[in-house]
Write a structure and sequence with these properties.
The protein contains 21 helices and 13 strands. The chain is α/β, with parallel strands linked by helices and 562 residues long. The chain folds into three domains: 55 residues, no CATH class; 171 residues, Bacterial polysaccharide co-polymerase-like (2-Layer Sandwich), CATH 3.30.1890; 241 residues, Rossmann fold, CATH 3.40.50. A nine-stranded mixed beta sheet has the order 5-13-12-6-11-7-10-9-8, with helices on both faces. It has a four-stranded antiparallel beta sheet with strand order 2-3-1-4.
Length: 562
């Protein structure tokens, strides 16, 4: 038989991701709190922030050239656009722009001016985009234009300074050559010589070359660039509006809620998924009860037509009937981990009714001797009958020889009940000889013994019965039981020589109360089990459906022993 925990580990990755996402959605309150915080933050930023305006201008940068219309002339010759962008946001440009604005009546420092400036360069262009953010549209326009013009003025002055320095350097070389040329001309007038004439010719060539260079520098076009797009006053404030900020706040809040849910999930000791329950308990999941309750004053759900709860109990009984571990002994111990034992009581009663419906001779033993409540929970369905002769011979007045009851299941049959009774020494009563003889009744063909024990972790009563009733079914609420509790139950039962056959999940008490508050549709006569059964219903509880009759005839066959 395949290990149930290993079977769950073999699931595909998308199924595991869906399971983890469903686990995060369990903490809806944290998700709601995160989204609420995000929406509040987005709304606060949108309503409390001041409106700002951004004006944009574009400057096309060009280099100095002698003839811009000549063939092969390039405007990007010697331009490093990254360096130009750094120059545009420098203190020098800010100081020039602040001086220009001061003359216009706008008193602003260079630091404050550069604080609202952003210069970008569109890809594969020689264009600098000046974007200035100000408090008013006119302020943004004027300061963006002043900064662009200051950059162009600074670049022009830098180019002219370079030309002036180079011209001065050429003139510094030219003056000694002219003096030497005049000296050689004087020597030629006194007496001609070929060497003097040759030196004079060389000097004249050098003077001509330097003069040509100076002339080319003076003829350069020093235009630093053009203001292609002049800044204009914006008509609407810049920045995200209220809808966008609310949307961003909602997304950020949802992410915050998921983070809080994940942290809560990590430190949550409760069972987070069916996979963890099966792995912690070391047994398969037999079934999960729907959010439905039996009729008031009775634990029985089987016998009500159209009850999803009854069908789930029948499915669990069918699965146990064909489980080789249960079919070999036909003994079942039903217990909860800790706390309220009402869900385990309902499970034991309805499983007994389901086995009786299948034609088995069922004996239900209430081993909860501290707070017995099955007779009170079953109500008028339980009728006291005479105990067996061997029980009368063992003694009178003490559990379990105090008496037996016959529980009638509407439309399904009946099963025997040994109700619990308050005794002074519970461990001695549970390990007594009469209890062993009661459990041994499962050895008869077609018999099933179901024992209802107190919570496993609250008392040791269930452990005292494991050596006689090897198969154990744990009834728990997945949102209330802890992983450590399930692991401890598995260790306790395994060490006592028993085996956990599976787990039965039931909804919490709070969810059942919410289900009770919902309006219920009007029931037909005989639908709740209090009236006469439907026409065609016999002792087996069938409604006359041939398919259902054949199915029950099939499942009521005794399981094949291996």
């Amino acid at each position: 038989m395949t290990d149930p925990s290993r079977a769950l580990d073999d699931r595909d990755e998308p199924a595991l991701l869906r399971d983890q996402f469903r686990q995060l959605l369990r903490y809806r309150s944290l998700l709601v709190v995160g989204v609420a915080i995000g929406l509040f933050g987005g709304g606060y930023l949108a309503l409390s922030g001041e409106d700002v305006y951004t004006a944009t201008g574009e400057v096309q940068v060009r280099s100095a050239t002698a003839d811009p219309f000549a063939t092969g002339a390039s405007a990007d010759k010697g331009i490093n656009i990254g360096s130009e962008r750094q120059t545009a946001v420098s203190d020098t440009v800010g100081t020039l722009a602040a001086g220009t604005l001061l003359k216009a009546g706008d008193d602003v420092t260079a630091y404050e001016l550069l604080d609202g400036l952003q210069v970008t360069n569109p890809p594969n262009t020689l264009t600098l985009r000046f974007a200035y953010t100000g408090d008013t549209p006119e302020e943004a326009r004027s300061r963006a234009e002043a900064l662009a013009n200051a950059y162009l003025a600074h670049r022009r002055a830098r180019t002219e300074d370079s030309i002036r320095n180079m011209s001065d350097g050429y003139r510094a070389q030219l003056d000694p050559l002219e003096e030497k040329r005049d000296l050689l001309e004087d020597q030629i007038g006194v007496g001609s010589a070929d060497d003097v004439s040759s030196a004079r010719a060389n000097i004249i060539v050098s003077i001509s070359e330097l003069s040509r260079k100076i002339s080319e520098l003076q003829a350069l076009d020093t235009t630093p660039g053009y203001l292609d797009k002049k800044p204009v006053a914006p008509t609407e404030p810049t920045g995200a509006g209220l809808p966008l900020l609310l949307g961003l706040g909602g997304v950020v809040g949802l992410a915050l809620g998921l983070l809080l849910s994940w942290v809560r999930l990590v430190f949550d000791p409760a069972v987070r998924s069916t996979h963890e329950l099966v792995r912690s308990l070391g047994a398969p999941l037999l079934g999960a009860l729907p959010r439905e309750r039996a009729a008031r004053g009775s634990l029985l759900a089987i016998g009500r037509s159209g009850s999803r709860l009854a069908e789930e109990y029948r499915a669990v009984a069918f699965r146990l009937a064909y489980d080789p571990a249960f079919a070999e002994s036909r003994r079942l111990l039903v217990a909860a981990p800790r706390g309220d034992n009402r869900a385990a009581s309902a499970a034991a009663v309805n499983l007994a009714a389901a086995f009786a419906e299948m034609g088995r001779d069922v004996l239900l033993v209430e081993a909860d001797l501290r707070s017995p409540s099955l007779v009170r929970g079953l109500g008028p369905a339980a009728h006291e009958v005479r105990p067996p002769r061997w029980a009368a011979e063992e003694g009178r007045g003490g559990w379990p020889t105090g008496g037996r009851s016959n529980v009638d299941v509407p439309g399904s049959g009946a099963f025997a009940l040994i109700p619990g009774a308050t005794v002074d020494n519970v461990p001695r009563a549970l390990t007594s000889t009469p209890v062993g003889r009661i459990v041994a009744e499962a050895d008869r063909p077609g018999s099933v013994v179901i024992v209802l024990a107190p919570p496993v972790l609250s008392y040791a009563d269930a452990v005292a019965l494991v050596d006689r009733v090897e198969g154990v079914m744990v009834v728990c609420d997945p949102r209330e039981v802890h992983r450590g509790d399930l692991e401890r139950i598995r260790e306790i039962i395994g060490a006592s020589g028993g085996r956990v056959l599976g787990a039965l999940l039931h909804p919490g008490r709070g969810r059942l109360r919410r289900t009770e508050r919902r309006p219920r549709p009007a029931r037909r006569s005989g639908g709740d089990g209090s009236g006469p059964p439907a026409a065609g219903a016999g002792a087996s509880g069938l409604t006359g459906d041939p398919a259902q009759t054949l199915a029950l005839r099939h499942v009521t066959r005794p399981p094949v022993r291996r």
